[in-house]
User: Fold these one by one.
Assistant:
Number 1:
Amino acid sequence: MKHRLILPCLLLAVALATAGLSGCGAASRTPAPEFSSGAAAAPSPDAAETASPAPVTGEAAWPVPETGIDFAPIQDFAPAGVVRAISDSQPGDGSDTGYYAIDRLQDGSARITFVDYATKQQIVLCSQPNCTHTSDACPAWYSYDNALRVYPLGDQLVVLQGGSFLPQDWLGDRAVPRVDILNADGSGRHTAFTFPSGCWVSTMPHYHMARDDENLYFVIQQTTEAGDRQAILCAAHAASGQVFALCGLPEDETHLIGGTDGTLVLEYTPGINESMDAAPADTQVVRLDLATRQRIPLTSYPFGSALTACDSEMFYLLSAGKVCSINLVDGSTAVEMPLTLPEGCSSIQRMYGVFDGRLVAATWTDGAMNTPGGLRFFAIDPTTGARTDLPYTTGE
Ligand SMILES: [Zn+2]
């Protein structure tokens, strides 16, 4: 029930955000039907059922760089439940009762809003009588939407301010990344953690946030005095307001794809930023054990050849020609199926994730960007490759 209600919100919100982009998707860069996984086992439809969990072993994750940021002691951190990625351009998320989002106003200010699933009404998350929700007196109001996002985690809401390394002179405290904690009804708002200037939250396309039952995972970028960029995987714990540095990350377009119970799946492409002339290396997919910070290689695929997502059991590669399911525990290929795109469409523009066991993706009508037909959405059964066209389109 929850998914049926959330999906239209997600699709509409994400599709609207996507409509303004100009093809940042991997498939739009290099549509290529072939990919190879690092899977050891032969493709077999029933491999998923027969695979037994392998012990989690790997090598230590990338060390946290020296930053001087006052993170909470790592021994206080604990993952909580299944990790899932949060869709791009999605400054909100659903709880069991409703959907929280950020409503940006024309003057650049913003408010936290809530859509109650039961009433289907959107309200500003403020219970003050006669409040105009346009000043600091309102607990739902922010003076400047510097990439604000709101996520319900347990009984709290985490509001993450993205920050920016550019406009600090005139934005002051609003320019730096910040973690605010609120109660689910919008009361009790307070700032739990503030990053120093020169930091910003990564907004890498194709998944830059993830969550479990209690923690929000995000990537902080920082430029050192020497001009080097550092990336740190952070976790904000909603109940305590503590923010942890889990590990460093390679400066190679790292995406937080999703995860399992206690592990985060991420992918990165070594060397992608080094030269425009040389072809990047294969995109690497690894599992990160959040409790031990061990990283375990899962698979790899040629850069730009596929879109990816995962749920708590499978990692999925989706290209114009195939859908491939890879076991998240042992990296074996469970299913590899041919995929037929809608008539007239030549490549997949975006994949939005796994909903009720199906992959939700979109393609530009007629296979070209910004055509009058806009984006068409469809769902793919990853066990059969069967495509179901969804009754959603976005256009000019
Ligand atoms: Zn108000």
Note: Residues 229 and 292 are 25 Å apart (CA to CA).
Number 2:
Amino acid sequence: MGDFEPYAAGVPPARSVAVRWLGHASVLIELAGVRVLTDPALTPRLAHLRRHHAIDATAIEPPDVILISHVHLDHLHVPSLRLFGSEVATIVPAGAAALLRRKGFRNVRETRAGSSTELGPLTIDTVPAVHPSSRGPHSRIAADAVGYIVRGGDAVVYFPGDTDLFDEMGTWDAIDLALLPIGGWWRTVGEGHLDPSRAARAVELIDPRHVLPVHWGTYSPIGLGRPAWLNTPAERFRAELDAAGTGDRLRLVTPGGTLVLPPVEWETHREPAEDTP
Ligand SMILES: [Zn+2]
């Protein structure tokens, strides 16, 4: 447990999910009255990248917990984490906590695939991801990339971080909302990522009720202006889902956009099948 101070219970559970995609892999998820923020990368510049959708971080309601999927600069981004103060509860893959503690963050807990964290009304399962573990070519910091399945209220949300396809994706039951990466900050993505076609295959494997595509259309290299391919991943993903017959799952928003999945949908979804005669 260390110095990790979990979210204090006491917030009444709400049977709805609201997610706000802040751009790239940064998603603010409100589930069972708890605010979960994934991989914040919110600054106008990030290394050699520029952001195309400004986000006013001061207008973001403080998250109860931040989930970090892996140590790449566009996912574990210290200046973006600092926007939420040094006390914010942060869950990171094993091997990454020392970096944040050195930077003054005091409420950091490590996790690894297969483990689970109880956080007030939420259960956060850590699942594998297939993605490079090193922070960068000249860095000694490394941590196995992970994804998270967040359960709370009456809904289940999957946040993969960055990953390629892997078999275990097909073994989870009842994912309500999958926040799938479909691109990156360049024209294409390589191995260890989902491109629109592999992301469509992930939808077949995971079989989520709703899919919100992320990790596209947000950052691109400085000097390119606004590249013509910025929104191509979303267009291709839509076409791939339509071709696979899963186009009705797509919930497409642009960076900064909000998606609210109303409680009534979740309740119909949860009718127990065993009781039917
Ligand atoms: Zn990455």
Note: Residues 70, 72, 75, 131, 162 surround zinc ion (CB under 6 Å).
